[in-house]
Structures
1.
Amino acid sequence: MYQSATGITCDLMRKSHRRCTEATVPGRQQWAVATARSTSTLGNIEINPT
């Protein structure tokens, strides 16, 4: 499970990830950045709150 900066928790699964991204407009960029920064391990995504 991953809790985004918006306070919404989502499963780190591709389907749930996509659904969460579409559902959380403010968190969309956060998720995009996380996915871009993660090399290949979706299970170990960490975002530093700025």
Note: Strands lie at 2-3, 9-10.
2.
Amino acid sequence: MDNHTICSGCLSKINGETVCPLCGNDNSVNNAPLYLKVFTMLQNKYIVGKTLYTNGEHALYIGFDVVTKTKVFVKEYVPSVLCERNENGSVSVFPGKEAQYKSMLADFYDLHKKLAACGSDIVQPINEIFGENNTVYVILPWKKFVSLRDYMDTAGEALSWEEARELFFPFLKSLSQLHAAGILHRGISPDTILLDKSCHLTLSAFATPSTRILKSDIDAQLFDGFSAPEQYSLKSWQGTWTDVYSSAAVMYYCLTNVRPPHAIERPKHDSLVPCHTINNSVPKVISQALDKALSPYTESRIQTVDSFLFALDETVYPNPKKSAPKMQERKTAAPTARPKRFPYMLVSTVVTVVVLSFFGALLFRSLFRDQLDDFIAANFGPHNPEYSDSSAEDAKLLNYVGQLYDDIKNSQRLIGITLKTEYVYDENKSAGIIIEQTPSADTPMSEIQEISFRISKGSEYVTIPNILPCSKAEAIQLLADAGITDYTFIETEESGYSSGQVINCMPKVGSKIKREGGHVDILYQK
């Protein structure tokens, strides 16, 4: 197998085509420089394809096991602010970052060992964990998923309480078992909850603590409206109550089709509208239970998933013989910015699970039939005759304007469609945001062979960061973070400065320069 016989995007066989006829992947484009090159071989067993997902901690690739002849997911620890990729594929740690890199590497390894042993039905089995290229790799079995967000977008309307109850109660019970095993997630959102073709929920994107705390050692990945308030402060404790908040936020979203307000804003001005006032199928007592689970104050929030389940279940189906579970006691030790050896999670965007039984799937289908038939046809139909019914012909193109292109480009709905992109500067849109799409939303998918996207490159100008006084290595990192790549270091000798220390720059710190064509001269002590 080589780059002439398989597609790097879906790893299907091709006949040398540049654009894959099955998935639309451009085989002439490689992965970004930080990540493994396509067709890299690991352990003489796994072929690495395109990146499916990246964050500040790791990358997830599609892969192929040449021994079993099956697709896999390949997850690689590669924190972007701590390391870079060498030409030979190995990872090189930035000077001065060795301690953080090694500590987080150990955390990443320990997390996956714990996940591999937990046996939860909302965590995908792990095939293998191994070290190579000065980092750690995790191999997971391949399975086709769509995100809960994509499902809700396809459905186009909120769930009823009975539908949500059927969907989320098994998930919450499994989440409680994860907590009992000492594993927190801290990133539960519609983007990290996945569905298979039986509508079984799977939790993806487990992460080590730094990935879920703002201003930690690496770039944090938080989810506006779904991450809890304590995740925006280094001084606050996180615990089971953090996952309670996020789970309740996801349920609120599914029951209302409205994203909850940003957690930072709520203590100042809480604009959260009670769930039952938006969706009258939700009993008031359920709405009140969600409100309590969504309290921005940890001391007044429901503390455990068991207590949350009890509040949701017993308010509608009272059973006086049952007693509420005891609240989990909080730790009293002072928190730190990144606790060492905390129970960790894996940030895997695609975690797979045990499929629901046949009769369970039929029951769930009876609750969601109108929405589910279109959903299954649109998302699992193209390569699966069992699910390719005629309703797929009625699917409409979604409105992707305002979304990140990287978030939608691998959408199952777009398989087989050629995606053309044009990147332009836009002072009002962040880099990567889709500005325009052609054809427009609601065009029948059966009529579409190609979609053109205009995508923001962000502002044409960048601001020179404060690199005074920094070491040369620190200045390089700060400039890279700011998007500045054209600069020259000039040696000088001044009294009062240590060797390698940046002394001044032209233009000065805080000045704006063009992203393309702008240049910075940097004076540093010889």
Note: The CA atoms of residues 18 and 27 lie 5 Å apart.
